Amino acid sequence: MKESFLLNLSKVEKLSRGSKLHRFLNNPYKYVYAIALKEVVYKLTHKEKIVKCKLFTGMDMHIMLPASTDIFLTGGKSHISEIRLARFLIQNLIPRSIFWDIGAHYGYFSLLASSLVTF
């Protein structure tokens, strides 16, 4: 499981480092949907939309667009520090570990940790 998580996290990292065209080509429908929400709907209504997306772990997560566009388009958090933290968790958490995510926003890292510490 950890090996597949690390492989999928590498795909997230590649997408996050790629161009907008690269992200568009990865999934044109999702890209157009997310950008249209951000550039048209949100600017007119100032209301976020709750959507469900698939994380790189295979788990589903409810997020709000446009705030979490990176998760929606790549399947994970896309800043290099967040990718490093996810990699650290994957490599170091083991079943029955205790993980506290103080101040979790949507619970992205909590979901990742829960899939690693479940026994």
Give the structure's gist in a few sentences.
The chain has helices spanning 2-17, 20-26, 28-45, 69-74, 80-92, 108-117; strands at 49-54, 60-65.
DSSP strand count: 2
- Mean pLDDT, to the nearest integer, reads 95
Helix count equals 6
> Overall 3D geometry?
globular
Q: Which percent bin holds the helix content?
A: 55-70%
Low-confidence stretches: none
Computed structural class? mainly alpha
Strand order of the largest sheet: 1-2
Give the termini distance in whole angstroms. 13 Å
Strand content: 5-15%
Cα-based radius of gyration, to the nearest Å? 15 Å
Largest sheet: 2 strands, antiparallel
| Secondary-structure element order, N to C | HHHEEHHH
How many discrete domains? 1
List descriptors.
single chain, globular, 119 residues, two-stranded antiparallel ribbon, mainly alpha, 6 helices, 10% strand
